[in-house]
Amino acid sequence: MKLGRSELGSVLLAVVAVASVLGVLATRHAPTTTERDARAKNLLPVWREDELRRVELRGKDASFALARHGDGWTVNTPEPEPADDAAAHKVVNALAFMTPVRRLEGADLRTHGLDHPRATLALEMGGAHLVLSLGDEAPAPAGGAYVALDGAGGGRSGGVIPAEAVKLFTTRADDLRVKALVGLGERDVRELTLDRPQGKLDLVHGAALGFRLDGHERANRDALAPVFAALTHLSATRFLTSTEAERARGGAPLTRVTLQPSAKSDSAVVLELGGPCPGTPDETIAIERAPAKRAACVKSEVLAPLSVEREALRDRFPFAARKDEVEAVTIDRDGHELAFERRGTTFWLRAPSEAPVALEAGNRRLEALTRAEADIVQHPDAKTLGFEPTLGKVTLRVITDADKAAEEVVELGKTAPDGTLYVRRVEDGVVLALGREAARAFAVDSTLLRSTKVLDFALSALAELELSAPEHQLVRRAANGFSLVVPSGFSADGELTTNAVLALGSLTALRWVADSDDGSFGLATPTLTARVRVDATDAGSNERNVRVGRPTPGGYFAALDGTAGVFVIEHAVVERLDTLLIDRSPFMAETATLARVTLTTPTKQVVIERRGGALVAKSGDVPQAATDQALEALAGLRAEAALHSGPARASEGFSTPALKVELTPSPGLGAQRTLRIGTVDSYRGEAVRNARVDGTDATFALSEVKLRPLFDLF
Question: Kind and range of the H or E element at 572?
């Protein structure tokens, strides 16, 4: 049949189209010009990672086979198992960016050991099969080697690769295995069983936060954290064959760890730990029974937390939640309610009224509730302790490990005469006894709304300050600062007095603890009292009195007369107020005015006298450097504080001083003074010596460090 012109044209077009398709199929794995230009410096002229299916190393000392499996890789050991993602990508990237330092041409591609390679790397990428052959070591660069590439475009190419690239040919299968023996974190575990030589421990995840011991009593989250941390850090230092591991551990005591995952799609993990590792007895053998069977050595110190005693895991806190996990709090007690919740970066009071709550105050209350450590009551009588019926409850709305909202509820029982509050966890029925201090957080009170600023006045506004400790003191404003009225006969120390006034003028509560004094804060017989009279230009005089009670963690209880409530102030504030404000400078010497310094101990004397304008030791056996250091110490000899006014006490060591220092000035430049240094003592944690100076009726504390150059003269 004869074809017409149009039919013939159609046939020719079809033939051309088929030929084009066949041409594309035939060259689809060949690098394009663009690809070759982009990878001109790389050994592999084309790289299509998404088409890479297999990488296999064969060598005398190392070998591996990586195969693509879904989105990841498997490694043969010799059985396939998931490869470590980071290690596998390191191999892939090393291939992708392998760059020779110089190229090989012609006959060089058949020499340098390339026809009898030390190792080969075979790649399956799309339909292409590429082989890299590692030849002899190259003379330069150090550690470099010759390499040839076959299968890229039908020819052979090659070059010299640097030492870093040569390392790829020494990769072992073990280098690509997942080192972590436990891939489940605490949030991923539904149940953890530790079957140990000292007994079995079963930990089951509770309804909200944390785990329960044997599915009943709640385990302490903080105590359990090291257990999960140890499991997370169970990492193979080297792998063993199962046969080798079984034989090496013999009959050693074993700890069997079983982790049941929360997700049904995940597999359980079963490990056996025990027995010294062959060749490294400071390591322990670990045999994984599931999800796959493999064996390894692990660091022995990682296993210690797995031996934690059951008693150490018992939770003595009312709540499992930590403060940052709490979204809202409701306290129902004695017919009253206190409720507040988080709103963004602050808190909001919902009951008994609506009002904002300072962020710090809200966080402190949450900390006090969630970290209120108590004693577990053994065999509690619910009726006797006030739980039939309950006298109230505290409810926390919390965010769980699964980022879901849940509630934790604690029921409130009776309060004992000594202030102990009994509470019962609804989650597991455990009854706790909270001491008086911890129980305060469970009260319905107004402390959340109280300002932490207790007093606020300027230094210049003070008219009078009266302190009761360490002895009665009265300070009044004077023309040029402050005057110490009581005790009489002394000048006020400007720095110490200013510190005391500023401490009161900016008095801030660390926290408010109660709406009223229940007699337990030590305020009836205070540690000290501080009365201030402030002259306000627009309101006349204003007098306030602060009482400081007994110490408590973080500070001291205190109250401000005329203002309801008890608060806590810092230790540093109490130290400033509990200091004698007597001038501390009587011991300091103007060495330029001195004609002689005589230092005497019970057994020896050193005399320093002025000669030719300089103070030098009269005896030639005292180095001038030591003399200069002693004079410098005298010039800066300011006392740490006055310990008390009045006569010396027998225990202070002035009947036979450890050191007597006589300061004799040049004529017309002052009067002679005598310093007496007594026994060693301690003042606020620092080693000091008792000291007195003639003409000042008080005993002071001088730092041992400052006095050392004087004693070194002997």
Answer: helix 571-577
